[in-house]
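Cross-posting from the chemistry board since nobody answered there.

I work mostly on the small-molecule side, so proteins are not my area. We synthesized zinc ion and want a rough idea of how it might sit in this target. Sequence and SMILES are below. Is it possible to get a predicted 3D structure of the two together?
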Amino acid sequence: MVSGGQTHAKASAAVAAPGTFGARILDLADRLAKWSDSQDNLTCTYLTSAHRAVAGQLREWMREAGMTAEIDTVGNVVGRFAALDPGAKILIIGSHYDTVRNAGKYDGRLGILAALVVVEHLNAIGRRLPFNFEVIAFSEEEGVRFGTAYLGSSAVAGRFDRQVLERRDASGLSVAELIRSTGGNPDAIPALARQAQKLLGYLEVHIEQGPVLLQEKLPVGIVTAVAGSVRYLISIIGVSGHAGTVPMTARNDAAAAAAEIVLFAERRCRQAQGLVGTVGQLTVPNGAINVIPGRCELSLDIRADDVTKRDAAIADLFAEIEQIKKRRGVAIEVAEVQRTPTVACSPRMQGLLADAIVRAGIRPHYLPSGAGHDAVMFDGITDIGMLFVRCGNGGISHSPLESLTADDADVAARILLDVIMNFQE
Ligand SMILES: [Zn+2]
């Protein structure tokens, strides 16, 4: 890991220089975290008053950093550090500023603030770029308020699903009504879509939300792919009976069959790196302590950085389920409830990140993302690159225990600056 490097004197209290990027990012994240939907913790969901205050603050900081900045109709804060040639292509750096309930301060916001301090620096030294550099703070990625994710980035990527406008929050308010209540116009959403031929690429800096970089003792890592998941709901129908009278050899126990599926999924997914499988829900409907389970329901989420790897595990799992059915005399129904594609990061963007990481004296480490990110919305539209930053506290995220050091934030911002300075069309 590198140290702070040559530390320049700060031009002013508000402008970061390499070596001071990290402290400034953490300070700005602390300031954003003061706005919350809840008095007890950090919760910032789509278009609440706290959420809109954060957007206003980001717009102000972007303008102070020499960008033109506006809040678009879905609440994205779009800052542009203009090239001398206004017709130049655009490099987008984005991440989201909404949070989950009881969140950490850096999920999403780190990526926005890292880009912001880089522009502050470029502006302070009077440097212009040969391309338009856009910093986009996406309004919604977590899906908390409306149960649907990527509201902000899907609009910019031209993938906004109009049906989402009809979705309602817990109070009965629809997305369309909410957007109108803030002065926005749902009919203007399609116009937010960018033209692919004008884009140079999309980059995102994000806290890892896992323990890999911590274990590798590395401040940053290069994301190879964002894993898509396949999700199933599985129902097992056995035969219920008296817990005391039915002999062990004469049972068709649905919960015991479920246990076999859980353990097989765990065993199989341990066999390949980048493959994960989770049973997050497991119930015996109407179960009782003295009744053999006649029915058991479970969920299964399988993800991998590679579709072939994932589908091979799924095929093995289905074969095992057939065996369990025969062995235990139970019926098993499997319903696929969601399938999202695995999105690869472009080799070119991975290479640009790796070059900058090597120049910083750090060993490049490649890892897949098990969680979804705004970057996936830009798949097929432009080249995607993602830089992960080490997450402290064992890798905990989506929690107030999420932690990030100023040193690691500094390294991330300096690598971003290096990538941008060396970016070639
Ligand atoms: Zn995030």
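Reply from a structural biologist on the board:
Welcome over. Reading the output above for you: The first strand starts at residue 68 and ends at 71. Residues 272 and 309 are 8 Å apart (CA to CA). Happy to explain the token format if needed.
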